[in-house]
Design goal:
195 residues, mainly alpha, 2 domains, 8 helices
């Protein structure tokens, strides 16, 4: 059965006078503007700051400075305990990754220095809080190098994990260890049980 409508689509009868070319400068200016919007939108939203901080080391130097400059005006007291832990862990992880990237084409020393300074401000005081990262599935050893072998990373983390569990045991006993396991979540349970 044929359609009763026999109309054809009409096309525009004009084209732009000039089609501009996109340059790398245009792209960098756009990225910079987007970063400024993201920083303005973050305010004191933990998840947004966590996402920005997790990607800040990948930005150009001026965009990294914008992110860190705005973040450095914040105080840890502006965030809830759990939120401070999320931010501290993001900073700790990025610092470790930057240290691993040292010598791979970009001078990461200024980036590591700023991330470390902010990380230290958000450093948890409780051993259990500052040790959770050791049992996460993506734990990266703090002292970076060119090694990317997961076995080397795990071997370096093992004594730190053992020390953390022993410290919690000495401070809080079995109840502290059980609480720590709940804090870390089920994904890390097998690692904690093997200590």
């Amino acid at each position: 059965m044929a359609s009763a409508c026999k109309r054809q689509a009409t096309l525009r009868d004009w084209v732009p006078d000039k089609i501009g070319e996109t340059t790398y400068g245009d792209i960098w200016r756009t990225v910079t503007q987007v970063v400024q919007w993201l920083v303005a939108d973050a305010a004191v939203d933990t998840q947004r700051w966590k996402q920005l901080l997790e990607r800040a080391r990948l930005l150009a130097d001026n965009d990294f400075d914008s992110v860190m400059g705005a973040f450095e005006h914040l105080q840890p007291e502006q965030f809830e305990r759990h939120d401070r832990l999320l931010i501290w862990d993001a900073l700790r992880h990025q610092t470790a990754l930057c240290r691993r990237d040292t010598g791979k084409g970009r001078d990461t020393a200024p980036i590591v220095e700023r991330l470390t300074r902010s990380r230290d401000l958000f450093q948890p005081t409780a051993v259990s809080d500052s040790s959770m990262w050791l049992f996460s599935h993506d734990a990266v050893f703090e002292i970076g190098d060119d090694e990317s072998d997961w076995r080397v990373n795990e071997a370096r983390l093992a004594p730190l994990r053992k020390d953390a569990v022993m410290s919690i045991w000495q401070q809080s006993g079995l109840k502290g260890i059980q609480g720590f396991r709940c804090q870390c979540g089920d994904a890390s349970g097998h690692r904690l049980e093997s200590r």
